[in-house]
UniProtKB/TrEMBL annotation:
Sequence intervals crossing the membrane: 41-61, 81-102, 142-166, 187-215
The protein's name: Metal transporter Nramp5
GO cellular component, one term: plasma membrane
Keywords, ordered alphabetically: Ion transport, Membrane, Transmembrane, Transmembrane helix, Transport
Keyword Transmembrane helix: yes
Lineage: superkingdom: Eukaryota
Entry's localization field: Membrane
Biological classification of the source: Eukaryota, Viridiplantae, Streptophyta, Embryophyta, Tracheophyta
Molecular functions per Gene Ontology: cadmium ion transmembrane transporter activity; manganese ion transmembrane transporter activity
One BP annotation, GO: iron ion transmembrane transport
InterPro entries, per the entry: NRAMP_fam
Length: 216
C-alpha cells in the first residue's frame, strides 16, 4: 500500500508538471540513449521492471492455488496466472513511465533553483524527493523515504521466497523455516551492507544499478 501511495504521488506530480505526451509516447517506441552510463541505466531499468527471479516465484505460487484437475480447469488457471503476472508488470511499467517522465520534465524545466539543478546533475535515490514537492510540499522527503523502505521490503520478501522455492525445487535442499530465512536474508543483505558501510549512499546506489543490470 505504501508503494501504491508513492505511485499515486508520482502520478499526481505527472498531472502538475504535464510532460509532453507526444514525446513520452515517442520515447516508449523509439528510445534514445544519451549521456554516460545510459546503456547501463536502460538495462538496469529492464531488470528492475521484470525481475526474472520473480518468474520462479510466480510459477511456485501456482502450487498454492486449488486448480481443477480437468484439462479445461488447467487451461483456465494458466490464463488467470498469465493475467495476474501481466497486470503486475503493467502496473510496474506505468510507475516507471511516471517516474521517468516526472524526472525528465522537472529537471529540464525552467525556473529551477541552483540546488535543484545540482541535484538533477547527479540524480539518485537519496536526492530525488524534491521531484514530488509540488504534490507533497515539505513532507515529500518523509513520504519518499517511507515508500523507498516499503519498496525495499517488498523486493527483499519476494527475493527470499524465490530463493526458497529454488532451493526446494532445483537443489532439493530442505531445512527449518527460521534457518532458511536467516540464511537467504544474510546472503542477500551481507554484500549490500558491506558496500553501504564502505561506499556510503553513492556506493549503495551504484550497487542497485549493478544488481539490476545483472538480473536484466
Amino acid at each position: 500500500m505504501l508503494v501504491f501511495v508513492m505511485a499515486a504521488c508520482f502520478f499526481g506530480e505527472l498531472s502538475i508538471v504535464k510532460p509532453p505526451a507526444k514525446e513520452v509516447l515517442k520515447g516508449l517506441f523509439i528510445p534514445k540513449l544519451k549521456g554516460n552510463g545510459a546503456t547501463g541505466d536502460a538495462i538496469a531499468l529492464l531488470g528492475a521492471l521484470v525481475m526474472p527471479h520473480n518468474l520462479f516465484l510466480h510459477s511456485a505460487l501456482v502450487l498454492s492455488r486449488k486448480t481443477p484437475s480437468s484439462v479445461r480447469g488447467i487451461k483456465d488457471a494458466c490464463g488467470f496466472f498469465l493475467y495476474e503476472s501481466g497486470f503486475a508488470l503493467f502496473v510496474a511499467l506505468l510507475i516507471n513511465i511516471a517516474v521517468i517522465s516526472v524526472s525528465g520534465t522537472v529537471c529540464f524545466g525552467e525556473n529551477l533553483s541552483a540546488e535543484d539543478i545540482d541535484k538533477c546533475s547527479d540524480l539518485s535515490l537519496d536526492n530525488s524527493s524534491f521531484l514530488l514537492k509540488n504534490v507533497l510540499g515539505r513532507s515529500s522527503s518523509i513520504v519518499y523515504g517511507v515508500a523507498l523502505l516499503a519498496s525495499g521490503q517488498s523486493s527483499t520478501i519476494t527475493g527470499t521466497y524465490a530463493g526458497q522455492y529454488i532451493m526446494q525445487g532445483f537443489l532439493d535442499i530442505k531445512m527449518k523455516t527460521w534457518l532458511r530465512n536467516l540464511m537467504t536474508r544474510c546472503i542477500a543483505i551481507a554484500p549490500s551492507l558491506v558496500v553501504s558501510i564502505i561506499g556510503g549512499s553513492n556506493g549503495a546506489g551504484r550497487l542497485i544499478i549493478i544488481a539490476s543490470v545483472l538480473i536484466g
